[in-house]
């Protein structure tokens, strides 16, 4: 039986029970990654030493207690993995190996996960596309299209079934955009829950997991946040302050009858606002994406929530503030790097950031205003907001880094303008697959909650997953799981 394509929960349970060994699981995944990486471009580094690490894990005395025992995970190439060079998609970054794991990587390893590789990201994680000097990542659902970005390879790897879990970062949508492009789940936590990336983009960037089920996503978030009460939040929409035990009913990967009753009877009864057209006039959102957001709201109404329509548009000044902040991040990220080794696109973004900074139009005041009170005022009395995750299907997988500023800005504004406000606000948000576009690609909806709302988001994701089950992997990545 091949364990490639199985969920993280299933793999960890099988390793804990001795039904399969960690080296067998990791070896099978490494073989699959090696065979298919040319097709997807998901990995910059494939860690063959992961097999030795799996053998060492198999000898641990606490193997039967590890929540992610033997689970292969992929890490975005801007998060430190000890002994690996972190390039962040750029030839201008340091070639020195990381001396230590980032805390989230250390937590994954402590929980029994095995790091099988570093995933592709565009240069300095600055764009919602998947190309860099190291190659072009491709969407497993349609190899001619980008998987989104900047957590490009992480989304592609999970969608292709190469790993059950991956980590990415999200500064202006860099988890939610690729997750929506590739039909997987992700959650950008709010500040303070998960240790942030080294470059936190003025407090906007967070590290989060990607997975194919709400249960896997909750478990991964629980591990990297060091809060195992989140592991069962997908069942009830709340933290359960109890000791999490491997192989408990909640670990089975299926919603318990008690949890189903809790969706209607317990505290998990939310006021949900659906904004199918949240952008200011002048922005167009694909009608199929708008319809998916509305349908997601109806599914949540059926699950017992109060659902209202939100006709209000985001304020017109917020878009320019988000773009200026993007440019400001580019200027910050390139400071101290050899500009001759940067891509044309990166140089242009950084130059725009420096110019706007010199005239005090760098978006800082708009971000402060939105974060301080305007986001809360606009959000109103809802517990959760549902919107489309994208405005249009993802563009072509191409070398956008060799193109100029205008072409790159326009493609972003056309297809991925919906996520940035919630980084500026520093609120938790996630992307959930919900339906299929007529072009054949998955459709993602975005769920947003005020600070502390991560358990609500996980619970709603599980309800949407139940209401409209989505294919866990792209069709080309499916594997027949036989004994």
TrEMBL record:
Pfam family for this entry, one: Amidase
Family in the record: Belongs to the amidase family.
Organism: Thermostaphylospora chromogena
InterPro entries cross-referenced by the UniProt entry: Amidase, Amidase_dom, AS_sf
Molecular function per GO: catalytic activity
Protein name: Amidase
Amidase domain boundaries: 24-458
